[in-house]
UniProtKB/TrEMBL annotation, chain A:
Lineage: Bacteria, Pseudomonadati, Pseudomonadota, Alphaproteobacteria, Rhodobacterales
GO cellular component: plasma membrane
Protein name as catalogued: Monosaccharide ABC transporter ATP-binding protein, CUT2 family (TC 3.A.1.2.-)
Organism: Alloyangia pacifica
Keyword Cell inner membrane in annotation: no
Protein localization: Cell membrane
UniProtKB/TrEMBL annotation, chain B:
PANTHER family per record: ABC TRANSPORTER PERMEASE PROTEIN YPHD-RELATED-RELATED (PTHR32196), XYLOSE TRANSPORT SYSTEM PERMEASE PROTEIN XYLH (PTHR32196:SF32)
Protein name per the record: Xylose transport system permease protein XylH
Annotated keywords: Cell inner membrane, Cell membrane, Membrane, Sugar transport, Transmembrane, Transmembrane helix, Transport
Record-linked Pfam families: BPD_transp_2
InterPro entries: ABC_transp_permease
Any one annotated GO CC term: plasma membrane
Protein species of origin: Alloyangia pacifica
Length: 251, 430
């Protein structure tokens, strides 16, 4: 169980984002402690992806603030997010299909040799190391990632997020495209990362995964926060009620 | 690679190529090029593959080939540049005006050694700035590259016209003219030295890459494959040098050169041309652009952006600034191409570079650059330019009527892309 006594790792306070008059995110506050998994739940279009993209730097919020370790920070682009050790695994994976695994893993953060040229051999070696840990069956280091299976592509995206010492990890439906075995692999990885004190925001539709993987769940509906609950203290029925009806459980 | 070895000797030929890790697409292009050469050689009773014609082919290809390397970057990032022919004309006009009017006006006499370099710098700056400006409109103002460069095609063609009042400007500076082709070559000895140096560097690069892989304990090709690769490289480079050296300077030209120095030509004296400076420039551009494409962050970002712009942006790549850089590079290369083209003519003419945009785009596309973005090679584009030029001069030598020449080139362009699409479908390399 995560220790929630100190300052939260991340706090998103009173965040609002609107697109052309439509409030995609409406005064939402969520937080995340080290070693904790917080599920972000809601229907498609509830605003969870938009909210989380403010943290990963893909969108800018209109109002509200983000605090990391209790200090207010400015995140204007993905580079800022990376500077605060925020890593994101996007639902689309955000891989450049024409490049190989190593180029994708280090995209935007290439290792360079003293001459200033990119050091492909070193990057491939590092990629082999981390893939050996995450997905030991992975062999296709020379092929562009479009030649990989869904699970293999997913493991490249995960490797990219994990490699750079993430403190805050955002996972947008990481198991949506995976088979049961690969889903199990992701579940084990999440346990591992929790144990290392990494905080994880998990966007997830599958209620069983939520009950299994998350410590807390924040539910959104129509851009607003319905509420945040401790998963241990509620049933899956309660959470479904929050998602579908926007009703807070009364226990 | 280890896997290739393990797969057995069953399917002989394919496996050799696999072991060598040759790009099959490159092989296809080289094959097509050789076929074109042989067919024309037969049709012209052996006049096509003479040192003289090969020499001419290479210098005719340089201008388009230089621009085609830049067009690869432009197309890989999912853009297009229709303005390159016009931009070439504006750069050429700027360089011509600088060396024949501006600098002499400042008191620098004809033949002053400062004139050529100064004119070239003016041209490069012009090309770079205009390219960057167009890239800024594409990247930051989000106007489609097709429109920006279509506008540019009209604007820069007519800026060149306005600058020169439509007049031909020349003759250009003597040392400037040496960059055009036949007017400036390395000579036989210099060419051999260059050829040997290039071979050594290429083999060292192959050996270095192998060493790096061994250091990281990656699978490597068998030693014989590396050896064969080095041997082929050496044959290609030295063979090319030998052919260019075999093209002999006509004796009347030699005699005039001796007379100009106040000497008399010894009886039986001969000299070969060797590698033209313009071809050296193309080689330098090709090497630099290949290194940029494969071994720099800039190149990595260009290909990543072409493969998946959203992913590139989420990885923190500034794709807008990247667009500016890509178009600026294209502009600088247009200036270099304009330098070679005007130097070859020995003057700037109002129609210089007309329709070059189509030749450049065709060269890049025939060379395997995918208009969908993300895929393309520098050597492919240069080969594409060479194939186009061979077709055109071959047909001219055979005596094909001008309209049919263009019809054939057009059909070849479409066919080349069709074959590429079919090939990629079959290999699943879409």
């Amino acid at each position: 169980m995560a220790d929630r006594t100190g300052a939260p790792l991340v706090e998103m306070r009173d965040v609002s984002v609107s697109f052309g008059g439509i409030k995609a995110v409406d005064h939402v506050t969520v937080d995340l402690y080290p070693g904790e998994v917080v599920g972000l739940l809601g229907h498609n279009g509830a605003g969870k992806s938009t909210l989380i993209k403010c943290l990963s730097g893909a969108y800018r919020m209109d109002s509200g603030e983000i605090l990391i370790d209790g200090e207010k920070v400015e995140i204007n682009n993905p580079r800022d997010a990376r500077r605060y050790n925020i890593e994101t695994i996007y639902q689309t994976l955000a891989l450049a299909d024409n490049l190989d695994a190593a180029s994708n893993l280090f995209l935007g953060r290439e290792l360079v040799s003293p001459t200033g040229l990119v050091d492909d051999a070193q990057m491939e070696a590092e990629t082999r190391k981390i893939m050996g840990r995450l997905n030991p069956n992975f062999r296709k280091f020379q092929d562009p990632v479009k030649a990989l299976s869904g699970g293999q592509r997913q493991s490249v995206a995960i490797a990219r997020a994990v490699y750079f010492n993430a403190r805050i990890l955002i996972m947008d439906e990481p198991t949506a495209a995976l088979g049961p075995q690969e889903t199990q692999m992701v579940a084990e990885l999440i346990e591992q990362l929790k144990a290392q004190g990494i905080g994880i925001f998990l966007i997830e539709h599958d209620i069983h995964n939520v009950m299994k993987l998350c410590d807390r769940a924040s539910v959104m509906k129509n851009g607003q926060l319905v509420g945040t609950v401790n998963v241990k203290e509620v049933t899956d029925e309660d959470i479904l009620g929050m998602i579908i009806l926007g009703k807070h459980p009364h226990h | 690679m280890a896997e290739a070895n393990a797969s057995g000797a069953g399917a002989g030929r394919r496996n050799i190529f696999k072991t060598l890790e040759f790009d099959t697409r490159l092989l296809g292009m080289v094959g097509a090029f050789i076929l074109v050469c042989i067919v024309f050689n037969v049709l012209t009773d052996g006049r096509f593959l003479t040192p003289r014609n090969i020499f001419n082919l290479t210098i005719q290809t340089v201008s388009v080939a230089i621009m085609a390397t830049g067009m690869v970057f432009v197309i890989v990032t999912r853009n297009i540049d229709l303005s390159v022919g016009s931009l070439l004309a504006t750069c050429s006009a700027m360089m011509a005006i600088t060396q024949t009017q501006l600098l002499p006006g400042l008191g620098l006499d004809y033949g002053n050694p400062v004139i050529a370099p100064a004119a070239i710098v003016v041209g490069l700056v012009t090309g770079g700035l205009i390219g960057a400006f167009q890239g800024w409109i594409v990247g930051y103002l989000a106007v489609p590259a097709f429109i920006v460069s279509l506008g540019g095609l009209l604007v820069w063609r007519n800026v060149a016209w306005y600058l020169t009042s439509g007049q031909t400007i020349g003759p250009l500076d003597d040392s400037f003219q040496t960059l055009g082709g036949i007017g400036g070559t390395l000579g036989v000895t210099g060419s051999w030295i260059f050829g040997v140096l290039a071979t050594v560097v290429a083999c060292a690069a192959i050996a270095q890459a192998r060493k790096a892989r061994i250091n990281h304990e990656f699978p490597v090709k068998p030693l014989w494959a590396e050896g064969l690769l080095m041997a082929l490289t050496a044959v290609a480079i030295l063979g090319f040098v030998a052919i260019l050296n075999a093209y002999e300077v006509p004796s009347r030209v030699l005699r005039r050169a001796f007379e100009a120095r106040g000497e008399t030509m010894p009886e039986g004296f001969t000299a070969g041309y060797g590698i033209p400076y313009s071809v050296l420039l193309l080689i330098a551009v090709a090497v630099v652009m290949t290194v940029v494409a494969l071994r720099t962050r800039l190149g990595r970002y260009i290909f990543a952006t072409g493969g998946n712009p959203e992913a590139a942006e989420l990885s923190g790549i500034n794709t807008r600034l990247l667009t500016v850089k890509v178009f600026a590079i294209m502009g600088v290369l247009c200036a270099l191409a304009g330098m070679v083209a005007s130097a070859r003519l020995s003057f700037h003419s109002n129609d210089i570079g007309t329709l070059d945009e189509l030749r450049v785009i065709a060269a890049a596309v025939i060379g395997g650059t995918a208009l969908a973005g993300g895929i393309g090679t520098i050597y492919g584009a240069i080969l594409g330019a060479l194939i186009m030029q061979s077709l055109q001069s071959g047909m001219a030598m055979v005596g094909v009527d001008a309209p049919f020449q263009n019809i054939v080139v057009g059909v070849v362009l479409v066919l080349a892309v069709l074959i590429d699409i079919l090939y990629r479908k079959r290999t699943g390399d879409a």
